[in-house]
Structure formats: structure tokens, C-alpha cells
Amino acid sequence: MKYFLDQEKYKNFLLLISLFLLMQLCFSLVFENLGVYIKVKDSLKLTYGINYFKFFISLMIVLTSITILSVTKIKDFGYVVSSLFLIFSVFPSAIHFANIEPFDIRIFVSHILLFITVIVSCKIKISFYNKVFNKRHSILLLLFISVIGTIPFIIYYSPYINLKNLMFKEIYETRAMMGEQIKITYLDYIYSWLNKIIIPCLLVYGIYYKKRLIVFFSVLSIVFLFLCGANKIVFVGLFMMLILYPFTYKVKLTFFLRFLIGIISIALFLSIVFDNHLLMQHSLRRNFMLPSLLDILYFDFFEDNYLLWSEVINGLFIDYPYDRSSALIIGEKYFGIDIWSANNGVISNSFANFGIIGNIINIATIGFYISILNHLNISSKFFGIIFMMIVLFYNSALTTVLVSHGGIILLMLALFFLKNTKSTMDYEEN
User: Fold this and answer.
1) Mean pLDDT of all residues belonging to the chain
2) Distance CA 238, CA 88 (A)
């Protein structure tokens, strides 16, 4: 394999295999004793333990997927995005397939199909012959949108700002108080669009073109928006954008894989030696394994009980049959916690809406979305923003990602602001 791949891809090939095996080791040694897995085990009468025949099958599928990813000739953007879908989608599902009984094989197949669709979509060229704003106009327009968008938050949220939140103190109290005092729906949408997409794009331009005032304004705006909701994900997005700013696409993936392997290795050591699962809970379990575990619950609850998108648009095909959100229903039924919102990603949500047909619709939509981004030649310096959007696919419904979290806004900015920035902002071929 080494002779067929460039140096960076070969590194990533080995790192991907290492990551999968490490994730499997963590499941075998630690996960059976984690609280969320115990609750699901009791709720569905599951049994945990590696089935070596199924593990062999899952390992062969994973190795084949990594090989296909490595040898397929696609743009580096598509290569890295496909790698993320492999890590967040196929790896956890493969591990659950090999270690949980009974396990609905349709879950594993759906995640494999999603990964394959993303790779294939990156081979399909979709061209847009639209005008793109130049550097100066892009910065001015993004700055204007950011200023106008921030004004309502200054008006409505300023009286409730709690500076202790900057030290991560009184977070939940502030969040609850603001939720009670401010009930303006459109601000929830603008909040996500600004802190996840628009202001980070402005920040990248400011850093690259050494516009210190733009950088200062962008960082200050993100800090202010954090204080408006005490939502720590705002700083996570800023951190990921900054840490993924340098390097080429493939080097970003190498860095990310090494970081993951390092963090998970430390978490495994702490779990085994000190029986301290905190890092494991907040790294591997929460971000990778939990969405796949929730797939099992959604497939169980919504089998032949489809919502037909009534939770999104009530009465579109049927009236929504429940008085609570599907996420709250899952949380109460399987975890016994009536306030725990078990939000999950595109596979679970699409199955809840229309079974396997729903999965196919969502997978095709994501493939089309990624194909557009792949062929816009976006600079790797913006990849932190795209990374956060991909992660959201595994934590929210597709409609929520596209509308509430700014997926459509990202697409519009990519078309009119970020298109062909690779040729002007990346000095070496990615």
C-alpha cells in the first residue's frame, strides 16, 4: 500500500486502522460499565461482548472502506470529509455491530451507504457559474452582516450578561434565566448562523489578510455571543476553527487522527488504572459512540411507527402523534429521564421519519450537499467551519442542521464568498 499512496495518505491509512482498533479496545475494556450503556442494556435486554465472527466481518468492511478512501482519486477536500464520515459514522456502527446483540444490521448498512455516497458524490462534478465577491467586498459584506446580526443580541441580552460565565461559572443558571426572559425565536436561528458560520468566516479573512481590527471584532463578537447564551459550543467552534486553520487538508487529517488517538489512549489509561471514566465519557463516548448507540433506540421505537416528517411540518402527511419531541420521548422511554433530550443525527432521524426510504432520502441529500462544497475549491483555512457542520450531522436532524445550524447559510457563503479561495489563499496544492 505504501507504494500506491503519497506519504501523507499512507500515514492516514495507518492512523485510521489504529484508531478503529483502539476504539474497539476501549469498548471491550470500558464501555460495558458506562452508565448510558448499562441503561440501554437494561431497557432493551441487550448483551455486550465481542462476537469474533462479526468482528472479523466488521474489520474487513472497515479495512476495505479505508482502502477505497485512500486509493480513490478525489479532491483533498473530499478525501478529508469522507474520512470524517468514516470515523464518525462507520467506525462506531461497526463496533456496535460486532459487540452488541441483538443489533439491527440496517443501522450498519445505512452508515456504510452514507460513507460510500459521500465518496461517490465527490467524484460527481457539479458546476456553478456564478459571480463571486472579491476579497474587499467579501470582508465588508461579512462585517456588515455580523454587525447588523449582533445588534438584536446587544439590545435583548445585554441586561442579563453574566461575566462569571467567562470562567465557566453559573453557566446553567444563566442559560435558564435567559431562556425564561427572552423568547424570540428568530434570534435562535441568527445565533447559530453568526457564531458557527458568518463570524468565523470573517475571522479567517481577518487572520489571513492580517486585518487586526477584523480579528479583534470577530473574537470579541464570538465572546459576546457566548455570553448571550452561555453555550460552550461557541468556544468549541472557535477552537476548532483556529486549530485547523494552518496546514493543508491532508495534514489537517493527520493532525486530527493523532490528536484523537492520543486523547483516547490517555482516556483508556485513566479508565483502566484509576477507574476514572471522565475523559472517556467526554471524548470517545459522547462524540463518537453515543450517536451510534442512539441509532439502536430510534430504530427500535420507530419501527413501523414513522413520523412522516410531522415533527418538522405538522400535518404535512399526518398530524404529529405526540405531545413532546421525539428526542424527549426516547430519553424518557430508554433512560428514564423525562427531561433528557436524546437528539441524534441523520440516520436515526431519517429512519424515524420514513424508515429505510427516509435514510436513502437523507443520504442522497447529504451526498448532493457535500458534492457542491467539494467542487467549489474552498481554501483549507475555512475547514474548521466545515468540520463543525459535519459533526452536527451526527447530533441533529438534517433539517435542523441545514436551517437552524446554518447549513444552507454555509452553502450560500461558499458559493458567493469562499468559491475558488483555494487558489488565492492556499500556497501549495492540497
Assistant:
1) 92
2) 21
